[in-house]
Structure formats: C-alpha cells, structure tokens
Amino acid sequence: MLEVHALNTLYGKMQVLWDVSLQVREGEIVAIVGSNGAGKTTLLNSILGLVRPASGSVIFLGKRIDHLPSHAIAELGIAIVPEGGRIFPDMNVRENLEMGAYPYRAWGQRKEALEYVYQFFPRLKERERQLARTLSGGERQMLAIGRALMSRPKLCLLDEPSYGLAPVLVVEIFRIMQSLRDQGITILLVEQNVRRALEIADRAYVLENGRVCLEGACAELLESDHIRKAYLGM
Questions:
Q1: Which helix (H) or strand (E) segment is 19 a member of?
Q2: Which of 10, 101, 153, 196 is 20 to 30 A removed from 120 (C-alpha atoms)?
Q3: Strand arrangement of the beta sheet that strand 14-24 belongs to
C-alpha cells in the first residue's frame, strides 16, 4: 500500500532523514519506534507532503505522491492523527468531526461517516454538542482519531497517540488501533512507547538519528538485545 524508498529530508541545511526505506502492506499495523529526535514525525510529514524530501520517493497504491500537495494526498486516502490530537478547542465535538470530512470524496458521505464514528466511539455521540476544550485527555484523543476516520481513509497515520495519557487510557487507545485494523484500516504508527507498539503491530522499523537501524516482525524485535537494552530497560 505504501512504499518509501531512500528518503532524505532536510530542514534548511540540516539533514534529518537519511536513506529511509519502508513498506506498509494493506491490513497491517506497522510501527515506527525510536527516541525523541530520531526523525519519526519528520518521516510522517514527508509522507504527507508537509515537508518536501530532498531525494527519494513515496509511493501510495502504486502512485508516486512525494511531489503532490498535502490536500491531494489526503484525497487519495491518507489521514493523520497528529501528536497531541490538535483538535479545534472552541468547536463542539460534531463540528470537529465534520472538519475531518473535508476531502471531496468524503464530504458527500459525511452523515454516514459520522454514524460510523459514533458507533466506534459512543462517548463522542454523548458529547456531540460539547466544546472540545472541555473533554478529557482520552476523549480528545478519541475525537482526533474519529476526525481522521471521517475521511474514510485507506491508510491512517498516528503520531504518538499515547502521549500524555494515563496508563489506563493508553491501553484503551491501543485497543482501538487493533479494532481499526480488524475493520480493514491500515495503520502506520509512530510511537515512543516501544513495548506497547511492538505488542500490537505486525512489523516495525526502529529509527535512530534519522536512519533505520532495525526492522522486522515485532515478535522478533521484542527479543532483540538492542531493543531490550535501549528501549525496554532490560
């Protein structure tokens, strides 16, 4: 579904990504793990067209997209849940969700999409008219995920979905991601919580200093000495 080939991305003269390559197959959860400053968010921004790669390519469903503007990439079926959710605090829950249906192909089906999101997150339906800034941290993250689902994406990018959440809410957010995969949504997950990410994902790439240093099935990576020492404290 998604292929990234030898991607190099710079901010000004500072290079952040170095020859990064990865693949995401339909129906998978693929995790990108690593510490702060490893280049994970820059990788997502490069896929989304928010940052232009200096070289390399991004191919989605057989079409090269690294030259396209972000709105055109969204129209093709890629949605993102940004770090921290970035909801619209002074809009109510329903208005926030409807903002997610901005792609042309999704706008005409927004009522059906809204019912789909409410089935998935009944708590959001209960708070439909409530201002987003009054929601709890977990509810805000649900709202951000629901907003992404409003575009009926083929591929959903999640940037640090567990950031700042209490442990019990982290468990719930990761359960939601598994449910999304079960319903046919492919997920590319960027996450600092390495153990949780590797427990739910199918495959993973470890990004360090802008380079992929390890990749493989998550069950194998959990047994890696490097992963155990660097990220799991074992």
A1: strand 14-24
A2: 196
A3: 14-24, 2-11, 55-60, 63-64
Long-range CB contacts (within 8 A, 24+) of 208-211: 208/34, 208/35, 208/38, 209/18, 209/38, 209/39, 210/15, 210/16, 210/17, 210/18, 210/20, 210/38, 210/39, 210/42, 211/17, 211/18, 211/19, 211/20
Segments of the chain with pLDDT less than 70: 103-104, 234
| Calpha distance 149→204 (Å, rounded) | 23
Length of the chain: 234
Boundaries of every domain in the chain: 1-77+156-167+187-234, 85-153
Q: Going by DSSP bridges, is the β-strand pair 211-217/55-60 parallel, antiparallel, or unpaired?
A: unpaired
- Return d(Cα 147, Cα 70) in angstroms, integer: 17
Longest alpha-carbon distance in the chain: 51
What's the gap between Cα 164 and its chain centre?
Answer: 16
Domain 1-77+156-167+187-234 classification at class level:
alpha beta
Question: What confidence score (pLDDT) does residue 146 get?
Answer: 95
Q: Are 61 and 26 in contact (CB under 8 A)?
A: no
Using alpha carbons only, give the angle 203, 204, 205 rounded to the nearest 5 degrees. 145
Residue 18: in which H helix or E strand, if any? Answer: strand 14-24
How far apart CA 59 and CA 1 sit, in angstroms, is 8
Question: Quick one: which of 1, 3, 62 has its CA closest to 27?
Answer: 1
Tokens matching residue 14? 């500072």
What is the per-residue pLDDT for 234? 64
